[in-house]
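Before the break, one more example. Copy the sequence into your notebook; we will annotate it together after we see the structure.
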Amino acid sequence: MPPKIFFGREELVGRIVDLADDLIPIALIGVGGIGKTSIALTILHHDRIKQRFGDNRLFIRCDRFPASYAHLLSQLSRAFRAGIQNPEDLASLRPFLSSKVFLVLDNAESILDPQGMDAQKIYAVVEELSRFDNICLCITSRISTVPPDCKRFDVPTLSKDAAGDTFYRIYNSGDKSDLVNPILEQLNFHPLSITLLATVGHQNKWDIGRLTREWERQRGSVLQTEHNNSLAATIELSLTSPIFRKLGPDARALISALAFFPQGIDEDNISQLFPTIPNRTKIFDTSCDLSLTHWSDGFVVMLTPLRDYLSPEDPDSSLLLCMAKELYFTQMSVDVSPDKSDSWETGWIKSEDANVEHLLDVFTTINPNSDSVWVACHHFIRHLHLYKPRPTILVSRIEGLPDDHPSKQQCLSEVLRMFCSIGYLPESRWLLFRMLELYGEQGDDLQVTRVLGHLSHGGRRLEVSGKRQQDLNKC
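Here is what the structure looks like once it is written out:
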């Protein structure tokens, strides 16, 4: 049966149906839970496909039988209604294919894994099927090992509108809320994750407010269900595949370290960040082949739902992550000045600021008494101020430090200069008052005088800004 809930794939389905009319083989490639099977089933039951192929529309789940040459031939014999118990090769089945056939090999990564049993012989069978002049072969797979004649489609995540339609259809509530949109965006509009979120909310009878609170509190664990199609199950299928296991014990640790970083990892930094992993490049290439990761603007990146599941529960216990942390801290310790913005030693922060900010946000939480972490925090804000001034979530972490902590004054002073430079006047005024308190407690009369001068100047700027806003409101 076609999926009951299916949104946002109409154009893709139309393109594939057109190709099927011409018996062109097709491969749908993508991460687990992206919707490959749903697309294939929708095409299998499409009116044009039913009219063209009639009852010769066949669907084989490749993960439901052992990945061997003999078992694949037996499955094909059964699907073709050949009645041959143990066919020796594909040629023996050819006489039973007198009509045009639309054949789906679903979850084909389980048989096309290059490191799997009978890998070469199985690939040869699938490649031969793709060349039959009366078969339209449709493959769904997490890996890119497919016959070259296949027209390949990398299945994208849903559009924002389709993600919303999917959520509310399952959640079964007529009332839509703006609180849901940020969660769907954080899920990267990943279909399975959205389905699981909506299902959990519906089954627990959570209203949108409760659903939002549970998401903020639990993140990825909200998506865990007892069903076989849970996010954990679909990710583990890739991680336990022969091609991934052959990479060795370091592979999962490396993927876990990658999952920690929201921006992914710059390909130019891979060798510096993980020097102890000799096959690091191959691990990342294989993770891309398995659709666990993908390349984007020179970064190897991961969808947020996968990141939430694979990111280390205890970052301090991840040796690879701690090594990456030390490299980032070292890079931030260099002398900085505005005239060095074009040099790599300082300008790198422009492209990796979110990674470093997340790193500091986590480690200032789990290691609040670490001097090196707070020194790095000061250096980061200094880099940010000079090369990519913007608000930062670290302000609340800094404010939580004891007033006598040596880094609190340094960090707040740098944040203050940055806020002033980007015109965050109310925030700057608040920070000035905090700095006035700190200097007053320390008895630093000179700094108190300077802050009072800044407050006076800032107050005038706020008055001017307020007047401009009032004038705009009258327009």
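Residues 458-475 have pLDDT under 50 and may be disordered. The first strand starts at residue 26 and ends at 29. Try to locate both features in your own notes.
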